[in-house]
Amino acid sequence: MINTLKIAIQKSGRLSEDSLKLIKECGIKLNNGKGKLKATADNFPLEFLFLRDDDIPGYVEDGVADLGIVGENVLLEKENRVDLVKKLGFSKCRLSIGVDRNWDYKGIHELEGKSIATSYPKILAKYLEENNVNAEIHEISGSVEIAPSIGLAEAVCDIVSSGSTLLSNGLKETDVIMRSEAVLIAAKSLSEEKKQTLNNLIFRINAVQEGKKNKYILLNAPNSAINEIISILPGMKSPTILPLAMEGWSSLHSVVKEDEFWEVIEKLKKAGAESILVAPIEKMIV
Ligand code: ATP
Ligand code: ZN
């Protein structure tokens, strides 16, 4: 159909599971599954291509796929002409410089004249240039972290999340070049029909993301405390208040932001709230 979008997803790796989970949370059901190169959806005009992440920006630029999910690090390195539609909040990591743990490293200028191993030569070259550092870049496609110990390079520029991979190879993280997360990308010239499908997909992704950022909260309180409790609970518009069977008491329902949650609960208890129940929100349309 003319409104069907093809989305490229990493075949197997650190983006795959969360990409498919997001699709599922959007209520989209894939029919053929793992190990295949392609899949379709029953209930949404979407087709899936499973590829290496490095190839995804290129395929989206060429129009082989209309959409893709990749790390911002790969997107920046590949320099393909595609649109960044939305940050997706998973596969968060950094692209950083790492050096020998015992190096009394004071700053990027110490890499002058040294060699650095990386799978991200373009991003690294730009960073070195911005900092007026001349260094030799060794491009390697994997296991960058072992380069110093085998004498291939004196430093690395690699993806870091906890830092444990660097640490177990005798390295330490020194300079953060960029922060990255998974992003949804799209081809630049989508037809109107495809744009409509993309808007529907974005609407669903937003609802899933908003839901995750918030909690549904129910509590009981004496009527005398309601005004104070309302001032603590901003809610979507204003909280729902229902009378309880017990005279002089009410139940309040509202929505609280995940990152303000514990602070709010403390205040609610102080204000006289009891029997506080908190539930996750699956989708939230704002
Ligand atoms: P492929 O075989 O598809 O080329 P790959 O080995 O290049 O896979 P992965 O290691 O699966 O790539 O990482 C894919 C993306 O996930 C990276 O480009 C980065 O954005 C992100 N990523 C990598 N390592 C981590 C990590 N430790 N924590 C979180 N996100 C990460
Ligand atoms: Zn890759």
Structure commentary:
By secondary structure, this protein is α/β, with parallel strands linked by helices. The protein folds into 3 domains: 5-90 and 181-190, D-Maltodextrin-Binding Protein, domain 2 (3-Layer(aba) Sandwich), CATH 3.40.190.10; 93-180, D-Maltodextrin-Binding Protein, domain 2, CATH 3.40.190.10; 214-280, 2-Layer Sandwich (Alpha-Beta Plaits), CATH 3.30.70.120. Helix content is 28%, strand content 32%. It has 8 helices and 15 strands. The protein has a 6-stranded mixed sheet, sandwiched between helices. It binds adenosine-5'-triphosphate and zinc ion. Residues 52-54 line the site of zinc ion (ZN). Adenosine-5'-triphosphate binds at residues 10, 13-15, 52-54, 71, 73-74, 91-93, 159, 161, 180.
* Reported CATH architecture of the largest domain: 3-Layer(aba) Sandwich
Q: Looking across the biggest beta sheet, what order are the strands in?
A: 2-3-1-4-11-5
Radius of gyration: 25 Å
Q: Ligands bound here?
A: adenosine-5'-triphosphate, zinc ion
Question: What is the distance, rounded to the nearest whole angstrom, between the alpha carbons of the first and last residues?
Answer: 30 Å
Number of strands: 15
Order of helices and strands: EHEEHEHEEEHEEHEEHEHEEHE
CATH class label of the largest domain:
Alpha Beta
Give a quick account of the main beta sheet: strands, pairing sense, barrel closure. 6 strands, mixed
Q: Output the CATH topology of the largest domain.
A: D-Maltodextrin-Binding Protein, domain 2
Q: Average pLDDT value?
A: 95
SS strand fraction: 25-35%
Which structural class matches the secondary elements?
A: alpha/beta
CATH H level of the largest domain: which superfamily?
A: Periplasmic binding protein-like II
Q: What is the 3D shape? A: flat
How many helices does DSSP assign? 8
Percent of residues in helices: 25-40%
GO biological process, one term: L-histidine biosynthetic process
Keywords: Amino-acid biosynthesis, ATP-binding, Cytoplasm, Glycosyltransferase, Histidine biosynthesis, Magnesium, Metal-binding, Nucleotide-binding, Transferase
Cofactor: Mg(2+)
Pathway: Amino-acid biosynthesis; L-histidine biosynthesis; L-histidine from 5-phospho-alpha-D-ribose 1-diphosphate: step 1/9
